[in-house]
Write a structure and sequence with these properties.
The complex is a heterodimer of chains A (about 325) and B (about 300). Helices cover about 40% and strands about 25% of the residues of chain A. Chain A is α/β, with parallel strands linked by helices and about 325 residues long. Chain B is an alpha/beta fold and about 300 residues long. The chains are: A alpha/beta (about 325), B alpha/beta (about 300).
Chain lengths: ~325, ~300
């Protein structure tokens, strides 16, 4: 076991400089979301992860276009299939009573005379048909819709990492996202890189998390989609703050909006070609410009304060 | 009559800015904003809304507390963790955000205490812009069925293109490769993938190109902001060659795109003579000369 021992020792040594921050890490789930795509979610998620020296896991929940691995060189140790259960009919038992067709709201089962057909790609895996069938003629079979890969980040003290990958041509991202989230860290910090938008995939990635960090850019498109994202987060009742990326490139409307709505601005990353170039090569910002490490640690402290303030407020309201 | 769909896989590569620029380069076209989740095209098109409709999506379960006996059957059968039980009163309710609209609890409640009203999940519009008509939509916050709304706006746009004898439908697509993207590409003449010379841009371009190939839609590729990393831009051209994607051009990084956006215009209107403006025009010509765009797919 000398190899393992060496790794433990190396990791411990690599971990020491960050020790000052490690005492501040509590179990918490931070999701990084945006509304508009391409604003810098992955940049914030990966660099935040690289700047904290504690027990943490990074989950890439943008399962349609996962990118975090491109910056972190993970070593995957496990690959799980994500399966969606779909009906399989035993025609020796089926009496063609059509009860399954009637309960299915997604048109995934059709019965005509003595013919029954299923359309697995329309099935939402609600299980209604199996429950309603009076003959027990329907059982559920697995249909693969994607994969979840999990492992460690050897360059970051073996931080935990998992990502979901939706199969090409599949429509249902939420079940893959839910399976990635089974890898959340029960005792430490979890950072979730969410997909863009405001509909079901991003809701699946944000629901039940403790804080949402919304990454935006100071442009009319950035602002418009940020407003929608803030509405979604408010609906979920999760404390949230902003990171303005490429600050200085557009106008001041995002800042005016944040002030008006009382949404705290947690960090600004200026528009800088050195940052854009590092990103284009797959380099971490904190590697290219090490002074950012302190800024991301400070972002973490602000995120934590946001979560704690919100808890205190809730307690006060309850009292 | 033809349809071109602008996609990218990765968000923020410039789909909408390029769609808007193309709109100003075509004399007889219609626009469709198929990114219903985070629609932005209207911000540069200032559409004058002429028709407005509700989008009635799926159903949502609602428990009638007067009929509910608290047996918990709904919670047992719900696969989406959408049934909430109040620990104090023992009463059950539905978390609308979690509800998938499958109706299993509705059908299996022994007291028939679960109602199943249809929900209005958004609006869709037919508008006039300075370049032509535009069909667009707004999906409600945190709503499902974005794929269905995309399919709806595209179908309405395609109907109008045929009825009004419009030459070309330009559809601004959503990011990703999932449900709304799949709904935005079926039956189109071609897809133009706008990518950027970054590791993420390349990774996502390959996924969306595979998706287009899966559905047998011809795909072309252009690179936005190519000079941020010319080596990656060269790599993209090589991948395009390998994947049989027609490569239609490179656009240099230019703050003019953002300046145009701030003014509510397209880059061709505000900076038509710039290098970026010229590159967009060249790409437009190449796209329209491609074999895929020569056939009439809509009639």
């Amino acid at each position: 076991m000398p190899g393992t021992l060496k790794r433990i020792l190396t990791n411990w040594l690599a971990w020491v400089p960050e020790h000052s921050l490690s005492g501040e890490i509590d179990p918490m789930i931070i999701s990084i979301a945006s509304g508009k795509g391409g604003t810098g979610k992955t940049t914030v998620a990966t660099n935040l992860c690289a700047s904290l020296g504690a027990d943490l896991r990074l989950l890439d929940c943008d399962v349609e276009e996962p990118n975090a691995h491109l910056f972190l060189a993970p070593e995957f140790t496990k690959r799980e299939k994500v399966n969606a259960p779909v009906p399989e009919i035993d025609e020796t038992l089926c009496t063609y009573c059509k009860k399954c067709m009637a309960i299915c709201r997604f048109g995934a089962i059709a019965v005509m005379g003595r013919t029954i057909v299923t359309f697995p790609e329309l099935c939402h895996s609600c299980g209604g048909c199996t429950l309603i069938c009076p003959e027990n003629a329907i059982r559920e079979a697995d249909r693969s819709i994607g994969d979840v890969e999990s492992g460690i980040l050897p360059s970051l003290r073996d931080t935990g990492f998992a990502r979901g990958i939706l199969d090409i041509g599949q429509v249902m991202a939420p079940p893959v996202i839910r399976q990635v989230r089974t890898h959340e860290n029960p005792d430490g910090l979890t950072i979730i890189d969410a997909p863009p938008g405001t509909s079901c995939p991003v809701i699946s990635a944000m629901r039940g998390t403790d804080v949402v960090v919304l990454v935006t850019e100071p442009t009319p498109f950035g602002l418009h989609d940020l407003v929608l994202a803030v509405e979604a987060v408010k609906l979920l009742g999760i404390p949230h703050g902003l990171v303005i990326n490429r600050a200085g490139m557009g106008d001041d409307q995002v800042k005016h909006y944040a002030a008006r709505e009382g949404v705290p601005i947690l960090m600004e990353i200026p528009f800088d070609k050195r940052i854009a170039r590092a990103y284009s090569k797959g380099d971490l910002l904190v590697e290219a410009l090490p002074e950012y490490k302190e800024k991301f640690q400070s972002l973490y402290r602000d995120i934590k304060a946001l979560a704690e303030n919100c808890c205190q407020q809730t307690v006060q309201v309850a009292q | 009559m033809k349809e071109l769909v602008i996609l990218s896989g990765k968000g923020g590569t410039g789909k909408t800015s390029i769609t808007a620029a193309f709109a100003g380069l075509c004399s007889n076209m219609m626009l469709c904003d198929a990114d219903v989740d985070a629609a932005d095209l209207h911000l540069v098109m200032s559409p004058d809304i002429r028709e407005s409709y509700d989008f009635v999506g799926g159903h949502e379960a609602v428990i009638n507390p007067e009929k509910c006996t608290g047996c918990g059957r709904c919670m047992d059968v719900c696969r989406f963790d959408a049934i909430l039980c109040d620990a104090g009163s023992g009463s059950f309710s539905v978390d609308g955000i979690g509800c998938e609209g499958c109706g299993v609890c509705v059908d299996l409640c022994p007291e028939q205490a679960v109602h199943f009203p249809r929900k209005t999940c958004g609006q869709w519009f037919v508008s006039q812009t300075r370049f032509g008509a535009m069909v667009h939509a707004r999906l409600g916050i945190a709503e499902e069925n974005s794929g269905r709304l995309v399919a709806l706006v595209r179908e309405e746009a395609r109907k109008r293109v045929v009825a009004e004898r419009v030459d070309l439908l330009i559809t601004d697509g959503p990011p990703g490769i999932g449900c709304p993207v799949i709904a935005s590409i079926g039956q189109a003449n071609a897809v133009l993938i706008v990518t950027e010379p970054t590791v993420s841009g390349i990774h996502d371009m390959e996924r969306v190109a595979d998706l287009a190939a899966h559905f047998k839609i011809p795909a072309m590729v252009c690179i936005n902001k190519y000079d941020l990393n010319p080596e990656q831009a060269t790599a993209i051209e090589a991948i395009a060659g390998r994947k049989q994607l027609e490569f239609v051009g490179r656009i240099p990084f230019d703050p003019a795109f953002t300046q145009a956006m701030v003014r509510g215009k397209s880059v061709v209107e505000t900076h038509g003579d710039s290098a970026a403006g010229a590159a967009v025009k060249q790409i437009w010509n190449k796209v329209m000369e491609s074999t895929a765009m020569k056939q009439d797919r809509l009639c």
